[in-house]
Amino acid sequence: MANCESENEDLLKKLELYREACEEQHKLEWNLQQREEEIAELQKALSDMQVCLFQEREHVLRLYSENDRLRIRELEDKKKIQNLLALVGPDAGEVTYFHKEPPHRVSILQKTLQAAVACEPSASKADPGVSKRQVRIKDKEGISERHQRDTEMLLLQVIHSS
Known about the structure:
Blueprint: H1 2-88, E1 94-98, H2 110-118, H3 123-126, H4 132-140, H5 143-153, E2 155-159
Antiparallel strand pairs: 1-2
């Protein structure tokens, strides 16, 4: 009987060890399943991001293409404008803006500069050398802002028949 009791205790200890091992295995399997679900979610998110990246790259390429088309169109328009201007000829007091191209001749009349500094709408009436466009530009912007913008972005050529 004592032998049976010791054998029973040994079996209970082994059973307890097996139970703990099974619980540990179950816990590990559950953790593994959670990690696999996380991996699947991350892979889906990665796939979605790759699709989004591909779409953005396509969009950028379309924008580059459109930009190139517009540059070509701009050059064609400039040629047409130059052809039309050559046919019509220069006008007295004409103002032509060149973007990134140096002017062939620059002459700025002193009367024009004085009228621009005066900042009065009546300056165009007092000085016939000032065009309506120059008065409008002067009214819309401050002299310093216009001067800074003009020196940074545009070269001004004033063609005036003497």
